[in-house]
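Protocol step 4 of 5: obtain the predicted structure for the target chain.
Materials: sequence only (see below). No template structures provided, no constraints applied. The aim of this step is simply to have a reference model before the mutagenesis design in step 5. Sequence pasted as it appears in the construct record:
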Amino acid sequence: MRYILTFVIGIFLGSIGTGITIGKNASSDAAALTQAKKNYMFAQLDEIGPRQCPCGDSRRAFVRQDNPVATIHMVDIKIDSQVHYHKKLTEIYLILEGTGHMELDGDKIVVKPMSTILIKPGCRHRAVGRIKIINISVPAFDPKDEWLD
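Step 4 output (C-alpha cells):
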C-alpha cells in the first residue's frame, strides 16, 4: 500500500524517476514530499532503483527539472560498458569497489578503490572491469547529452 501511495503522490509531484528518494519506509516518503520546499535535497542512493546506461546500472539522485546544478550516481559497471561522451557534462568518477581500467580518449588508466578521474566534455570514455563507482555530473545529468560513436 505504501508503494502505491508513493507512486500516486510521485505522479502528482512529478518526482517519479527524478532522484527524489522514494524510500522503503514512510519517514523517507514523507521526507521526499517536504524536500521541494527546502534549500537542500536528500537521497539514499542504495534505495533508488537502478536504470540502465552505457556504463551499467546507475542509481541517479537529484535528476530533476528544477535542479540544473549537479547530480550524483552510484553505478555498477557492466563488463561490456560502451564508449560514450558528453558534449556539456563534466563527470567526476570515484572508484568505490573493484579493479579494472578506464579508457579515456584512447588512453588506458588502471583504477582501484579511491582512484578518481575528472572527465571533461568531449572525452570518449568507459570503465572496464567489475567496478562500482560514484559519478558526479556537473551540470546536472541530462540523458539527451549521452553520445555513442
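Step 4 remarks: The chain has two domains: 1-47, 50-149. The longest strand covers residues 90-97.
Proceed to step 5.
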